[in-house]
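Treating backbone geometry as a discrete language has practical consequences that deserve illustration. Part of our work consisted of pairing the sequence of a single chain with a tokenised description of its backbone. What the numbers capture is local backbone geometry rather than side-chain detail. For completeness, the protein is quoted in full, as a sequence line and a line of structure tokens:
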Amino acid sequence: MADTFNYRIDHHGSLVRPAELAAVGVEQAVKDAVAFQRRLRSTVVTDGDFPREDFRSAVIDGVSGFRRTDEADPYGLVRWVAESLPKANGPLLADWAERLAALTIIAPKVSLPSPAYLAATTFQPDLGVSSARELGEALAEIIQAEIELLVSKGVRLIQLNNPLLLGQLGTDPTDPGALSFEDALAVDALAVRLDERPEGVRIGVAPGWVAPTAVDGSRAEQLYGTVPADRWILPFDQGTPAELTLVKSLPEDRDFCLGVVDATVPELEDIDTVMERIDAVGEFKDLEDGAVSPSRGFADVVSRPLLTAEQQRNKLVLVETIARYCWGNEF
């Protein structure tokens, strides 16, 4: 029987906000989102990120030391800067996660920005923090403590998002921001450490949404060898050799989740094409260690959903169909 703890039918966490969100309120919208995910037979449920402005807000909103600016980063996100080392003002997502766990028997999932990503994008040398590495380590301590709290509240799948890492795996690496590749790995490694993992708990990392044109296998191995995550959520929707290299470089003891459908375009993927790509992975990986999902979140920024709610539903239905092609009904 397939390992139910691999959470075969996954998604990154953020969902398109319903048009009636303001009218019904966040609490009811989250309940409706949980029911929606259960109808789709997802093996995880999230709150859709409905209570938050963007995928960084889970941390930014819950700690001191950051200031919002009027600037935007190259990806159109509002820029925040660190004016002092952050301190948590209490739990970050644990209260919401506890409510989520009470709504369903399906494993709750929570997504957080990685500390290395936040440090790389918020550090400014002329303010009150001495280095991006120091900032990242302070954030890692906060996030690691939150992960332990989330697990104690019944969350079984936690995903850290660092959209900058895949660019560093290219044969021509992109700009890492304020934090070097090596420092980023060291910082994120601090966050995912968990001395005891209850049955079914997975700590995952999504290192980016799009694979580079060509992957440096040695740098990929450095990533996987340094950050002791249980699960790696990897883009796998374009059918490129680089995507295959990312999976091939994974150590045998790590789970993988393949982002097999493109969350940025409404057109549905051809199932036979997707299955051929997964079959190629099966030539060198045990698919019992795998799962499938969309390539990224559908609305990592509340004001910029990538698809309509109906298009999102069609993509998630396709992910569920692909999972059943791979593993039958053993979830």
About this structure: The first strand starts at residue 44 and ends at 45. Strands lie at 44-45, 63-72, 78-88, 107-113, 157-161, 202-206, 231-235, 255-261, 290-294. The two ends are 9 Å apart (CA to CA).
